Amino acid sequence: MTGKAENYSSDFITFSKDYGKIFSCDDTVYEKYLKPSVSFALKNWNNYIGKENSLGLKFDFELGIVENKSLPNAICGFNGHKHIILMYHTFPIFLLEFFYRLLCNERVLKHKGNTLDYDKKFHSHLKSPPGFSILSGEVQIKHIDDISNKLAPLCAIRKEIADKLYHYAMVLIWEHEFAHAINGHVHFVQNNLSSNSLNEKYLNSSNLLNVNRAISYIEMSADKGASFNLVVGDLYKKSKTAFEIISNSEEFIFDYSLKILAGSFLSLFWMLSDVVDSNGDFKSIDYWTDHPSSLARAINFTLSPITQCESLPLDEELKYIVKKATEFCYVELINLGNDWGICRPFNWLNRKDMFSKVFHEKHRLSNIETEELISKLKKYRYI
Ligand SMILES: [Zn+2]
User: Fold this and answer.
1) How many A from CA of 222 to the centre of ligand 1?
2) 383 occurs within a structural domain
3) I need a labelling partner for 65 at 20 to 30 A (CA). Which of 71, 78, 327, 377 fits?
4) What pLDDT, in 10s, does the model give residues 102-160?
5) Which residues have CB less than 5 Å away from ligand 1 (the ion)?
6) Is the distance from CB of 343 to CB of 272 less than 8 angstroms?
7) Are residues 181 and 82 in the same domain?
8) Which residues are 61's β-sheet partners?
9) Could you list the residue range(s) of the whole structural domain that residue 146 is in?
10) pLDDT digits (tens, 9 = 90+) for 35-50
């Protein structure tokens, strides 16, 4: 992907028509806002081109951004030849706003840099939650750079953290969609639910309970795959190259903490988006138990690196880094849960009944159903 409309294949152009005009951006915008996440993702996924699944299909994909003013969304589809991965152009815009406004809030990552008085004053008049002031018209932008000019933290350290979180969250979105592609989720949906794409909005509107459960499973596993590539897999790869891991380097561990936090915050963004979407009351954010739930996804993102670490033959030093990074996130999220209304759902991390309530029985496939689903998915997988 280059952000240039003329570089797309006819497959891509035909498929993306239903979702909006192909988004075209200049090189500076591409370099600054898209390239870091796109190149991270492509480094992993280009290796899978040409891999065959048991139906004889060869893996190929193309990704791009479409102009679509609806709530941010990403889509993974299959057009008969290749997987097409699309992101609405609102996604980078809203996410950038979201992370800038989070980092302007003194409660977020309290001990990093300074939240200047200006940040507090400037943002206090905004009624919409972080990520939604452009959508609501409270903040007007003509160019994506305006977000930085109007909403970025004044403290350079906090701006840098917000930028990192933004790029990591973008990686997770691309990687999540790739996980749908490579694991054959899209073929499964085509053959079992007669849709040619996996699209969060469509999935949530389905009221067939067993379909929802299967989709919950698929969504969670795509999140796990995305988080693996960004956190544990990335760390593992680094350990295999000429790279010296210094486990007591605070900066290094903090960077991995941000990778984990990016997933938890991305899920917070989904929670807020769910509320905005249903014109709901923000107090309801306290009771996030429905599934497929953005809260379950937040918890999944926070805890899955440590679980993945345990099940891999990683050396102790790597495990230590993931453990430290996870602890850091855990404390941050619990503090935010106590301190800031919109983050209240994170208090679930401290509840003894968390697993039974958030990942509630009735929202989950039984063991037998899970095995059935896994065996159905198997024939579509490219790995
Ligand atoms: Zn998905």
Assistant:
1) 6
2) no
3) 377
4) 999 999 999 999 988 888 777 878 888 999 999 989 999 999 999 999 999 999 999 99
5) 219, 222
6) no
7) yes
8) 83
9) 92-155
10) 999 999 999 899 999 9
